[in-house]
Design brief:
The chain is mainly beta and 339 residues long. The chain is built from two helices and 22 strands. The relative contact order is 0.17. Bound molecules: 2-acetamido-2-deoxy-beta-D-glucopyranose. Belongs to the glycosyl hydrolase 43 family.
Length: 339
Amino acid sequence: MRLHTGKWLLLFLAVPAALANAALPVVRDALTDAATPAVSPWLRYLPSGVGLSQQSTGRLGKGQDPGIVFFRGSYYLVQAAGGTFLTVFRSSDLQTLMTDEQFHWELTKELVDNVEAPDIDIITDPTDGSQKLGIYISRVRPFPGFIKVVVTDDPAEGFEDKGYLKGVSGYDAHYLEHPNGNAYLFYSDFATLQIIQMSDPWTTQGSNVTISRATLPWEMEDGYPPINEAPATVISGETLNLIYSANNWASVYYLCGRLTADVNSDPMDPSSWTKDTSGPVFKSANGLLGPGSGTFFTNGLQRWWAYGCFTDPSRVERHIRAQTVSFNSNEEVVLGEPV
Ligand SMILES: *[C@@H]1O[C@H](CO)[C@@H](O)[C@H](O)[C@H]1NC(C)=O
């Protein structure tokens, strides 16, 4: 979520009952990449990767709640920012992603200064089967908000407003085209992570189901109301990994936990999901504080995790960083430490 002033951090601390009407610290989410050779639907996500550097870390710039995707040879980024435009950043080089091309979509009136945590995902347009970019914009007032879908084939050519998703009350949306052939939207309603099936990238189908809530001591370390937010997924082998963020984004306790599900299980069944209860999988380290609200993407050579974090003890502004990830023998994603 965007860095608001300390004023409403105090409000947040003092008046948890007012959560329903306040613009809350919201965070953002992520993308699915794919590279599972045995699962054919994922092959279409594999970009060429030609000419890309082999670097393993990136300092992208000021910002938070990144959503990043690699699509047709370019990286695309959206992030939380106020104002009257949604900005889509594009570059063929990760290091220059926030300083190269920028495209602006003029926000509809109700979204002005009211956008948090947008995500960008590769979607399949049901009308012609082509791949496009879907931008899932969180509008957080009234809290926990609504999700608007904006589609683009090439941001230089324009954007199409597909409207708000029906039946979704939340923020931090993340759209996933699953190897089982269905599509799903993950999002947060602040206290819990939700999933809802999608009949196409801008149409929900049926009702949402809760797949996680904050219950563990390290998910509630800051003494704030329980938070599970910013779902981001990455598949490796037969394992669907979901990284989420817990605690308050403005605190040093903001961190990430991990859920996993077998790709052959039904993601709409809460019992398909297992939370790693042993502790956070990504947290403050190396002077980088409150890392979280991240996104997964692949450039065809490596799989990456990008996230926001504070880079100084006073926690004035956040920066977006990216680093490569690995997987353990259970195909669980290993994020390591923020660097
Ligand atoms: C669907 O979402 C709403 C709002 O977040 C929540 O109250 C409800 O419990 C969810 N439904 C299920 C079945 O979890």
